[in-house]
């Protein structure tokens, strides 16, 4: 015999609608923005990012100087600026023939000596009032003067 209480009765009940609060809406909007702002992971996008982040030293900077400077400075702009300082200090003697005071080989050796001296000053903790490029400029000028006279 079956008990009337044991028979499962199906109740029809209405499911209330989920009420949204302003907080939950804001969270959904935030998640949507995060999902749309994340960079895609396709290989093409990765290569474009890697190229834009890559640091290449210009061809007009000698390789010996660039290799030395890269061990202390990772930005190519800084390395190129150090070489510009070296080129600027090597004055033109004869403007008609565009001859400079020092040859390319002398210029590179002076630049390497100057950069080594600059790094020693930085490691020693010498205070640079006007910045690293001004300090390097002074070192290069002193070395040019010593070798010239």
Overview of the molecule:
With 149 residues, the protein is mainly alpha-helical. It has a domain of 79 residues. It is 58% helix and 3% strand. The protein has six helices and two strands; from the N terminus they run ααααββαα. A two-stranded antiparallel sheet has the order 1-2. α3 packs across α4 and α3 runs parallel beside α5. The radius of gyration is 34 Å and the shape is elongated. The N and C termini lie far apart (123 Å). The mean pLDDT is 78.
Entry keywords:
single chain, 149 residues, mainly alpha, two-stranded antiparallel ribbon, 58% helix, 3% strand
Topology, please?
Elements: H1 22-37, H2 43-53, H3 63-70, H4 76-89, E1 92-94, E2 99-100, H5 104-124, H6 132-148
Antiparallel strand pairs: 1-2
> Kindly, what is the distance between the CA atoms of the first and last residues, rounded to a whole number of angstroms?
123 Å
What's the helix-strand series?
HHHHEEHH
List segments where confidence is low: pLDDT < 50 over at least 5 consecutive residues.
Answer: none
Shape: elongated
Number of helices: 6
Mean pLDDT value: 78
A few lines on this structure:
This protein is mostly helical. It contains six helices and two strands.
